Amino acid sequence: MQYLKPIRKQGLVKKRIGGETLLYDVQAGAIHILNKTADLIWDLCDGRNSVEDMLKQLHENFSVGSEHDLSSDLSQALSNFNQKGLLQNTRINEAVV
Q: What is the pLDDT of residue 93?
């Protein structure tokens, strides 16, 4: 299965406060709070990175044990972004990795 490279929706304002990142959707008037992992995934949603690229970046940026499934975290984050209307392309499959 081919997976579209996710692209952030335009019109969102990103602001870092403490250890979290806030995304403000001006059009919807909604605020979304991202932790460090979701923040990195969000930054990688630039239309150039595949799921495999994103997974590689997560492994390079976070020290996690082999028992932790980063692919599941990535899939969940992309699904959440999509469900909240934060991505331009909406063909996100639940089993992306």
A: 46
- pTM reported for the whole predicted model: 0.82
Least confident range from 1-5, 8-12, 86-90: namely: 1-5
| In-domain check, residue 43 | yes
* Residue 39 placed within a domain: yes
> How far apart are alpha carbons 85 and 97 in whole angstroms?
21
**Residue 83 CB contacts under 8 Å (≥ 6 apart), including other chains:** none
Cβ burial of 3 (10 Å; 0-12, 13-18, 19+) is middle
Is 86 buried (19+), middle (13-18) or exposed (0-12) by CB count in 10 A?
buried
Q: What number of other Cβ atoms are within 10 A of residue 73's Cβ?
A: 18
Domain membership of residue 75 as a residue range: 12-83
User: Does residue 18 belong to any structural domain of this protein?
Assistant: yes
